[in-house]
Amino acid sequence: RHFLQIPGPSPVPDRVLAALSMPIIDHRGPEFSRLAKKALEGIKTIFKTTNPVIIYTATGTGAWEAALVNTLSPGDKVLMVETGQFATLWKKMAEKLGLKPEFIATDWRHGVDPKAIEAKLKEDKNKEIKAVCVLHNETSTGALTPIAEIRKAIDAAGHPALLMVDSVSSLGSIDYRHDEWGVDVTVGGSQKGLMLPPGMSFNAISDKALKANQSSKLPKSFYAWDDMLNMNKQGFFPYTPATNLLYGLREAVAMLEEEGLDNVFKRHDRHAEATRRAVQTWGLDILCQNETEHSSIVTAVLMPTGHSEVAFRKVVLDNFNMSLGSGLGKIADKVFRIGHIGDFNDLTLMGTLAGVEMGLKLAKVPYKKGGVEAAMESLTENLIKSNS
Fold this sequence. Notes:
globular
């Protein structure tokens, strides 16, 4: 079996694969209604919200668009931050939709600075900025943004802007609290912490976002919230949904609840810490520079000067049938990414890191030995603490 160690799509566990193989049913019948209601209620627990969560037959990119078109109007200003490739793509989408993004530039090595958000909003005396759009976890760089602090920054500025957050790669893997953190629209996706194939995405919405929806003037049809919410009340959709992905979602939510979300988050934290220990022992640099912002689902590693991440990943793939994440955008061929997300355990991590360390030697990338041993020590220390 292929070793898929990119930061999403993540491997799909056997229980979810079995659920996906259920026979197709009538998406207008009572059995489907029961399935959809269960899935719609279950996903709320993962977002930690009591408000509606809308499920789209689309990737996270579709849910980005849904968040924007359902709340904003042509010419509206939105505040965004260049944390990496995916923040950049969301900004380009906003431009194509006729919005006016104000983009705070960064070095792609940090999450969003709440102080920068507060300062920009205080400068906006006429309250022209209608939304602040940030990524909780920037998958391209492995940098996390403190969403609760962003909410505090918006409040400190006394600004009415909506807060929109991309949680595509963090949902189900890193602690996320839609209601408690005062998020207005959270964008999610199926193919990462939820352990599903790509093709399903989400909008978790606040009362404030629903109010903004009433005056939004951007065109919308497939992504219209009102049609979805009205049909969802009866357990149906305004169009043919991804029926079998709903079976998979129901099973994935059950798996997360059985483990306990807090335990899921701790598991990802543990694997991320062990991975960073390995990288540091190898003498390589982690792209994300602030330790408090290190992602728990992906570690982005800088290649030594003069060495290609494309060539290195090819060596790993050819010799061990293992895929690592590539460098994207500005950091293409400069960074490789180790995914440790979803259906993942200690031994899977050790196999991953062993493949990386052997790959470094085969590709003749300068490194220091002992990274795998350092990771093992980290995992063992955590087990001793948890068992004492």
